[in-house]
Amino acid sequence: VVDIRKLYAQTGMFTYDPGFMSTASCQSTITYIDGDKGELLYRGYPIEQLATSCDYLETCYLLLYGELPNPQQKTDFVNRVTNHTMVNEQMQFFLRGFRRDAHPMAVMTGLVGALSAFYHDSTDINNPEHREISAIRLIAKMPTLVAMAYKYSMGQPYMYPQNKLGYTSNFMRMMFATPCEEYEPNDVLVRAMDRIFILHADHEQNASTSTVRLCGSSGTNPFAAIAAGVACLWGPAHGGANEAALNMLEDIQKMGGVAKIGEFVSKVKDKNSGIKLMGFGHRVYKNYDPRAKLMRETCHEVLDTLGLGNDPLFKLAMALEKVALEDEYFVSRKLYPNVDFYSGIVQRAIGIPVSLFTAIFALARTVGWIAQLNEMIADPEYKIGRPRQLYVGATKRDVQPIDKR
Ligand code: ACO
């Protein structure tokens, strides 16, 4: 009998690396992370500078084309995106097939995948022109789709995009305006939402990006590959963490608020409880998530603007952050608040329902997924992704007749 595990170990033919802890799946020029220093660069530019000096569409241009746009390039890019903000009118009938209480990520997975059924002229992933137009379409239509999913869940009419508005103001208007009442975008809130988009735009080979690359490597169309990314992002260990973090805060609040933090943290430390402190920890950042620092700043600005500094949930979040930053369990494991811990508080303050948080993350990450997909396909050495496995099942055996089993 051959022990396959031993054979694999002896031949050393390939590595076994659960969770890809130390295996690079590709080469990339898009995003650089130094987890020990807490550094994040898009195309070489520090995230802090991009978040303070650029807007989201400039960041999209940078991720897609490798350089920040000059004024003419920015105008052209903004115009191209703006021209594509409408979705095919038939999409609303597709949307109507969903239950109104469906999770927005279930709806988004369907809607994004369905784009490939509407835009046949941009489904050939190996054709650079198709990739270019599908990229523009996806970036332009994601805010419209997220807002449609929200309005549908509320039973309200959809608000069509208004192209005289900027990308982020347009999104907020589609979310919050109604045919009865216009929405006047507030600069601080628009800037906060834009910053959420910038900070979530790319993050190298995370689970959803790796999913998009793997899916695209089969030659499927770009919309299908991005839909796979949306599906992967949904999980609470990834993009679903912002929703999970806010739900956790609400649970602690119901238990009794700040006074119950100690009790909750004890449960988290008990490995048998299966409870994690959502919005804390990161696979790569073992110092501090630089996006969290920026989002924390935005969080204060938004709450001050809205006069919500005394909001009990915000106070609870700050108290929890303090406890975790001082507790030996979290300090020794280098578990710091991540971007999702604060982005949930900001979005809730802006008026975004908790169940929509991950869909907004998907909107923002779409450009990163596309940039990564384009980089992979444009590489002449790209191959279909096909991980190996370490087989640990039964060795070869014979099927017994059913009466002898
Ligand atoms: N709460 C409590 N303990 C934690 C947490 C947490 N949030 N995160 C990790 N730990 C513990 C683990 O139990 C483990 O303890 P041990 O050494 O005693 O066994 C140790 O810290 C190391 O954790 P790993 O699970 O090995 O870390 P990994 O890198 O695999 O996980 C992850 C990273 C998935 C982000 C994890 O920290 C987590 O689940 N956090 C909560 C969910 C979350 O906020 N996700 C958002 C990620 S950011 C993003 O997607 C934008």
From TrEMBL:
<dbReference type="InterPro" id="IPR010953">
    <property type="entry name" value="Citrate_synthase_typ-I"/>
</dbReference>
<feature type="active site">
    <location>
        <position position="282"/>
    </location>
</feature>
<dbReference type="InterPro" id="IPR019810">
    <property type="entry name" value="Citrate_synthase_AS"/>
</dbReference>
<dbReference type="InterPro" id="IPR016143">
    <property type="entry name" value="Citrate_synth-like_sm_a-sub"/>
</dbReference>
<dbReference type="InterPro" id="IPR002020">
    <property type="entry name" value="Citrate_synthase"/>
</dbReference>
<dbReference type="GO" id="GO:0036440">
    <property type="term" value="F:citrate synthase activity"/>
</dbReference>
<feature type="active site">
    <location>
        <position position="340"/>
    </location>
</feature>
<dbReference type="GO" id="GO:0006099">
    <property type="term" value="P:tricarboxylic acid cycle"/>
</dbReference>
<dbReference type="InterPro" id="IPR036969">
    <property type="entry name" value="Citrate_synthase_sf"/>
</dbReference>
<keyword id="KW-0012">Acyltransferase</keyword>
<keyword id="KW-0808">Transferase</keyword>
<dbReference type="GO" id="GO:0005737">
    <property type="term" value="C:cytoplasm"/>
</dbReference>
<keyword id="KW-0816">Tricarboxylic acid cycle</keyword>
<dbReference type="InterPro" id="IPR024176">
    <property type="entry name" value="Citrate_synthase_bac-typ"/>
</dbReference>
<protein>
    <recommendedName>
        <fullName>Citrate synthase</fullName>
    </recommendedName>
</protein>
<dbReference type="Pfam" id="PF00285">
    <property type="entry name" value="Citrate_synt"/>
</dbReference>
<comment type="pathway">
    <text>Carbohydrate metabolism; tricarboxylic acid cycle; isocitrate from oxaloacetate: step 1/2.</text>
</comment>
<dbReference type="InterPro" id="IPR016142">
    <property type="entry name" value="Citrate_synth-like_lrg_a-sub"/>
</dbReference>
<comment type="similarity">
    <text>Belongs to the citrate synthase family.</text>
</comment>
